[in-house]
Design a protein that fits this description.
alpha/beta; Four Helix Bundle (Hemerythrin (Met), subunit A); 2 domains
Length: 290
């Protein structure tokens, strides 16, 4: 049972016993939202906003209270454009994050979808640190029907990105999707490498549309928020890719990240298939859980 199912069950139970929006209801709702990993601050803020709306608008009916809660959470999540900016040729998308969160898989799925839309897509294997990372990306490139630029294990990631951008310009590629080494967010030298990659893009493709997407595993809950804060400081994120949302009851991290960092979730991984990376829709997400 995935996140949506689990949280839907909890909120259904919460509202099925609903008699009125009294203090006992608000306390139980607070607890439910904290357990769903919205984080203490965000959960308290959401419930306080609901409390005020219930009083001000004199909401009595269960459906009215539900609708108000949906509006509050949807507004908290809606902190920016959730569409990817791929407006230039080439556009460059950097995928960053710690090991094991699903960066390479997300690149494969997104590449497949962009290819299906008629775009020419190039994968850049700039994760030269992890053994067989480029091999894994090559398998995805073949599955998705996308091109790949790679070098040997241990090569300079900046050199691989440079080659990829040169190839992209020469071949009229629409989108470059760049894999990077899984970084521990407290390693200063690896963060400096991200800064170097950014400078190479600035130099080789000035004015290119760019996305810096932090890939987070939804099952990590509040740890994901800590990672997001540190990557935001180091790399200036434009969006979040939330993976494994189908396998967790902690997807409330979506709300916490949006609220505390002002960074929108742009894509959500909800399964293993090529088509299981979906554009994130705040209203749909809230409807699904409440």
């Amino acid at each position: 049972m995935g996140f949506f199912d689990k949280l839907k069950k909890i909120t259904t139970n919460l509202f099925s016993g609903f008699t009125e929006a009294d203090e006992a209801f608000f306390e139980e709702l607070e607890e439910t939202l904290i357990l769903a990993d919205l984080g203490m601050n965000t959960a308290l803020e959401a419930v306080e906003q609901l409390r005020q709306r219930v009083r001000k608008e004199k909401l009595r009916d269960q459906e009215e209270v539900k609708a108000a809660l949906r509006d509050i959470l949807a507004e908290m999540i809606s902190v920016g454009d959730t569409a990817l900016d791929l407006s230039t040729q080439p556009a460059v998308v950097l995928f960053i994050g710690v090991n094991g969160v699903g960066k390479t898989t997300s690149i494969g799925k997104l590449g497949s979808q962009l290819k299906a839309e008629g775009k020419r897509v190039l994968f850049c294997a700039a994760d030269t640190f992890r053994a067989a990372a480029a091999d894994q990306l090559q398998i995805w490139a073949e599955r998705a029907g996308c091109e790949l630029i790679r070098q040997h294990e241990g090569a300079d990631p900046g050199a691989v990105l440079f080659d990829a951008l040169q190839a992209a310009k020469a071949r009229n590629v629409d989108v470059v999707l760049c894999d990077t080494a899984g970084r521990l967010h407290n390693k200063a030298n690896l963060m400096a490498e991200l800064s170097k990659l950014s400078k190479i893009i600035d130099r080789e493709c000035p004015g290119a549309a760019r996305e810096t997407l932090l890939v987070l595993d939804a099952t990590t809950g509040q740890n994901g928020l800590i990672q997001a804060k540190q990557f935001q400081e180091a790399a200036g994120l434009t969006g979040i890719v939330l993976t494994k949302l189908d396998g967790t009851a902690k997807g409330g991290i979506v709300v916490a990240i949006a609220r505390e960092l002002g960074v929108p979730v742009k894509l959500a991984g909800v399964g293993e298939g090529l088509g299981d990376l979906k554009p994130f829709d705040a209203r749909e997400y809230v409807e699904a859980i409440i």
